[in-house]
Amino acid sequence: MDRNSVIGFILLGVLLVGYIFYNQGQQVEARKEKARQDSIANINKPKVPTDTTGYAAAGTTGTQDSSRLAGEYGAFANAAKGTAQTAVLENDVVKITFTNQGGQPATVQLKKFKTFDGGPLMLVDGSFNRISMQLPANNNTLLNTADLFFTGGSVQKLADGSQAVTYRLSTSNPEQFLEYVYTLKQDGYAVDFDIHAVGLENVLPASQKTLALQWDNQNDRQEQDMQNERLNNQVHYESGEGKHDYFTLQRTSHQQLENKLQWVSVKQQFFNTTFISQKDNNFAGADINTKVPESGNIVGQTFTTLSIPYTRAHDFKFPIEIYYGPNHYKTLKSFGIGLENIIPLGSGIFAFVKYVNKWVIIPVFNFLSGFIHNYGIIIILLTLFIRLLIAPFTYQSYVSSAKMKVLKPEIDALRAKHGDDQQAFGMDQMKLFKSAGVNPLGGCLPAVMQLPILVAMYSFFPSSIELRQESFLWAKDLSTYDSIFHLPFTIPFYGDHVSLFTLLMTATSLMLAFNNRGMADQSNPVMKYMPYVFPVMLLGIFNRLASALTFYYFLSNVISILLQWVIQKFIINHDKIHAQIQENKKKPKSKSKWQEKLEEMQQRQQGVQPKKK
């Protein structure tokens, strides 16, 4: 064995040992993370009272039971036991069922929406979902108000048509209590949640400057594609200064927010639950923990602790607004606090396309949907409108393509003349373009103009709740993929289903590439075959995307093919273009200063002395 082999084996050994240590470290971190999340879950797990009937547990006397509860619950011992009762606030769009155990929403149903399988759409359902304040008990322990029984719960109808329900959690002193007031307006998805604390400055520690509002939220499956639903399960928030940010549950398990917050939103693909503070009373911060279960129909879980600035006033109030509703752009924008930013209309390097969506696509889409109820037809009209906008650039592109086609024999002759000397070929080619009056980049402008629109559509269609569960042709739901056949197996980088709109989009993209084959540099294999390879590469990506998007791309391709045929067959006169090019060659050409310097640089690179003027 030679020295190089020994060194190679040593390096491999070092890499192997390093990988083992790294992998062990990752496993330790994973165990720590799981332990942290389990600890958080246990803390927020609903506590079952010893007796919910109002009587002492068997085997104990009333005095013994009272003493035990006083020792465990302190000043809130009277609220440790009770009978669960519900109250309902309801309007045309939302139904909220409250419970006196915790004085909180037990279920929230969006009445105008259904799940993918036709069931009622519940944003809150099950014991995991809790809204709770943390209050001190004896022995320096903390109580969650979600485990205690509040009094009240009678629904009141207000003069403006709103409905309200009030829950009160009293201490052993009736003048010290915590009160929740929920008010649901006659229309809309938002419910006012007013926290009212009276005399609690004598119960809370003197050093306490904030109140901890615990908000546990579980997102259950609502859509057909759960993988895509989890990719869109995010937490969004906006600071008191109006700065918006977010993170995805699958990528971030913990986020500590120490600045003032105006709102915090847990967003699903098409729905969200948002806690909104008033402008003059922002949340002091938030601690957010997340968990994504490995299996089941739970999309994601969040454990959020919102810090409420506490002035220690005897009569303390903190108003909150809770939004339970759809990710509808116009509805969210009506709040005037940037809540519409949770809808992904453009981000990253393509963040600028959100303005295309906000100023062009969404207004036109809303206008068409105002009098047309078939969203497939709306997409067709929207596509025609967009193609009409870029029609002048499209025409110029085809004219430029026709000119390049006329010049192709001369370009091929120059390529044969210079062989491998690409620099000399490039110089003569530019002279030919100059003399013929042809701009080689003329065909690129429409592509540049279309790129923001294509990316804007890529963001808009999968995010548009208007398309959810709307059918067209064979697509049952335009907001998700159109599956005409489910495979009994999964193809890597493709999936387990066949999307017909995606196949049609790919086929028409290949037809366009074939029609434009004369424009590619045939001497460069990459440029020659990439127009055919690229659509096939995208087949697996678009197979999972919204059928509205793939239908739009397919339709746009069909329009391009038809326009190309009509313009080249009936509008563009190749003989006239050839004659015009020949006339341009005869005209004297003046050189700009930039062209002169460029030619001088090229001549120096070739070792030719530039001509003196």
Automatic annotation (TrEMBL):
Gene3D superfamilies: 2.70.98.90. Residues 603-613 have a biased composition (Polar residues). GO terms for biological process: protein insertion into membrane; protein transport. One of its GO terms (cellular component) is plasma membrane. The keyword Repeat does not apply. It comes from the Bacteria. Keywords: Cell membrane, Chaperone, Membrane, Protein transport, Transmembrane, Transmembrane helix, Transport. One of its GO terms (molecular function) is membrane insertase activity. The chain crosses the membrane at residues 6-22, 335-355, 375-395, 437-461, 497-514, 526-545. It is a multi-pass membrane protein. It is found in: Cell inner membrane; Cell membrane. Residues 375-569 form the Membrane insertase YidC/Oxa/ALB C-terminal domain. Residues 89-351 form the Membrane insertase YidC N-terminal domain. Residues 593-602 have a biased composition (Basic and acidic residues). InterPro entries: Membr_insert_YidC, Membr_insert_YidC_N, YidC/ALB3/OXA1/COX18, YidC/Oxa/ALB_C, YidC_ALB_C, YidC_periplasmic_sf. Required for the insertion and/or proper folding and/or complex formation of integral membrane proteins into the membrane. Involved in integration of membrane proteins that insert both dependently and independently of the Sec translocase complex, as well as at least some lipoproteins. Aids folding of multispanning membrane proteins. PANTHER family: CYTOCHROME C OXIDASE ASSEMBLY PROTEIN COX18, MITOCHONDRIAL (PTHR12428:SF65), OXA1 (PTHR12428). Belongs to the OXA1/ALB3/YidC family. Type 1 subfamily. Interacts with the Sec translocase complex via SecD. Specifically interacts with transmembrane segments of nascent integral membrane proteins during membrane integration. This is Membrane protein insertase YidC. It comes from Chitinophaga oryziterrae. The gene is yidC.
